[in-house]
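ok so i was messing around last nite and threw this chain in just to see what happens. nothing serious, just curious
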Amino acid sequence: MEEAYVKHEVKDKIATIEFFHPKSNSLPGKILAELAQTITKMGLDDEVLVIVLKSGGDRAFCGGASFNELVAIDDETTGKKFFSGFANVINAMRKCPKFIIGRVHGKTVGGGVGVASAMDYCLATKYAAVKLSELNVGIGPFVVGPAVERKMGVSAMSQIAISANTFFDASWAKQKGLYADVFDTVEELDEAVYALAKQLCTYNPEAVKHMKKMFWRGTEDWDQLLMERAEISGKLVLSTFTKEKLASYR
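result:
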């Protein structure tokens, strides 16, 4: 089985950050921490003008939280720490002074929807259906919720959160504003991502920095808010309801 990783490369002033996990690109704590650190590092690199965030493999873009780590949580401190990993990634993306392009090639679930929502500009294939499945296991999309709501609106966010068993197709996600465009093939997606990244490299970095602040206006409390949400999830994951649900999926 392939090893999980977060890696990056910088070429032509474009930083491409890629994460991978053999279990549907799920996100254990280690991967979340490395993602947040790499995004922050690339945001501070003067040789980088734009960031592309993608996942490896050719199936799911992101399977959400690591099932094995969810099952292993046995106290509130550990629970909060795990869910704060998603908070740290979203906040790193929010604070990054560079535009972040999302390249979503396949299905994305739970926390992955939050990551996609925190992109500044997200492109996808027609296979990139989305699902917020958290209510199925007795928790909720509390940490990623603000990012999803900001991108798609309360109506779409509540629809996808309540219909926790449903995959919503990529055309629906485009209609609701999650994706800027949807392509038939991965090849077309990659061509569009690269063309956009090259275009963004021609923009004034100072103007981009100010635009980022403008786009994210009103989220200044997210450092605290998302940690409070992580604490809620960390408590709920210990509930009898959730423990029994997780055990039934094993």
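not much to say yet. The two ends are 20 Å apart (CA to CA).
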